[in-house]
Specification:
heterodimer, A: mainly beta, six-stranded mixed beta sheet, four-stranded antiparallel beta sheet, 12 strands, B: mainly beta, 0% helix
């Protein structure tokens, strides 16, 4: 069975500081992993995805994530937070075509 | 290219009423799904479909019904609305190339059951 955990339901960072959002997954087969962002009252938008081509994945808006099989992790990072990064972030795992499992989400606040 | 379109965006229902949330995509995607989003619980899969005529249950299917008569449309029916179904509902789709395909989401439908 697949599952996703996101450590920290709410993360606050200062503008210009490093953003680190944690995601750990459980999957019995090599997974495909996704990070999505959700701005208030909007749908989810893909930030980046891991599809086994490279362990370090670069996405939109300066975000990147590293797949670490030994740690079953796929943490999301950004070197310098902007005010516009304030949003809800979701990690998702898809080990089979028919089911996608999302984590509970992490709300990111950016303090000026 | 409209992507995934959901209607209505907002709806208030009385307990016991039925309604249908509409979802359409114009990307010729085989895979479509419905999620509900509740605070602190992320997105939970209600029903999904891997092609026209094929549907299956997700994590929280009770109280919901779906059908897939065409590739483009995947409506979600609430049979007898309950306050516990107050939520934000998202429709999503992805192509048939495999599990690495990007999943595209609609803008969401806010449903309140009173």
């Amino acid at each position: 069975a697949q599952s996703v955990t996101q450590l920290g339901s709410h993360v606050s960072v200062s503008e210009g500081a490093l953003v680190l959002l944690r995601c750990n997954y459980s999957s019995s087969v090599p997974p495909y992993l996704f990070w999505y962002v959700q701005y208030p009252n909007q749908g989810l938008q893909l930030l980046l995805k891991y599809t086994s081509a490279a362990t370090l994945v670069k996405g939109i808006n300066g975000f990147e994530a590293e797949f670490k099989k030994s740690e079953t992790s796929f943490h999301l990072t950004k070197p310098s937070a902007h005010m516009s990064d304030a949003a809800e972030y979701f990690c998702a795992v898809r080990a089979s075509y028919d089911k996608v499992i999302f984590g509970p989400g992490t709300s990111l606040s950016v303090i000026p | 290219n409209a992507g995934v379109t959901q209607t209505p965006k907002f709806q208030v229902l009385k307990t016991g009423q039925s309604m249908t949330l509409q979802c359409a995509q114009d990307m010729n995607h085989e895979y479509m799904s419905w999620y509900r989003q509740d605070p602190g619980m992320g997105l939970r899969l209600i029903h999904y479909s891997v092609g026209a005529g094929i549907t299956d249950q997700g994590e929280v299917p009770n109280g919901y019904n779906v059908s897939r008569s065409t590739t483009e449309d995947f409506p979600l029916r609430l049979l007898s609305a309950a306050p516990s179904q107050t939520s934000v509902y998202f429709c999503a789709s992805s192509g048939s190339g495999g599990p690495g395909n990007t999943i595209y989401f609609g803008e969401g439908s806010w449903l309140t059951v009173v």
